[in-house]
Description:
Elements: H1 2-9, H2 15-28, E1 37-43, E2 46-53, E3 61-68, E4 71-73, E5 78-81, E6 85-91, E7 104-105, E8 109-112, E9 115-118, E10 124-128, E11 137-143, E12 156-161, E13 172-177, H3 184-204
Parallel strand pairs: 1-13
Antiparallel strand pairs: 1-2, 2-11, 3-6, 4-5, 4-7, 5-9, 6-10, 8-11, 9-10, 12-13
Amino acid sequence: MLLFQGMKALPKKLLPLTLFGIAVTSLFSVQPVQAFTVTLRQVGSNVVATGSGAINLTGLTPDRAGFSFPILNASLADIRTGEANQVTFYIGFTGPTSFGSGGDFSPNASSGDLVGIVNTFFQGLLVPEGYVSNTALSDSMTFDNATFASLGLTPGTYEWTWGTGTGLANQNFTLIIPRVPDGGTTVFLLSFALLGLAAFRRKFGC
């Protein structure tokens, strides 16, 4: 309420610039580390998966350690993003058993921490070997000349969860396959900001 009262007190010439600044700042504001989330997007002729966030291992049981690699298999609910590396597998979670009809697909490029849900021979959550709970993770993988349809992906939000959830954050792994593959929210905010700047320049001739 005080924010808008302050805006009314601003000179009319400064109000559009202030609104523009708020819109742009919202795009780049720093947010706390959230639960690990992978989002798939259509970027030109490629499909790109990007993952970021943290994982709380409380409530999970370490099952085995070994070497793993990035892969996507929608029919088995198997998604592993990042570079091939040594990992630890954990069990004790529940979640979907598929997120589409697609088979095995290996990415053309990948980077970052290897994190994911494996469901090929057994069901497990994998994290980098030696991973410490609630430490930030990030990764990506790219499928060249691909679409959601060619990879057999069904749009939706898929979540694997564990633990009691009482007072503990980041006890989930989320996969987002948007119905509009191009990340519409960020594009909308940026477009709004650019339109505001254009209107400001036309009005004040700068």
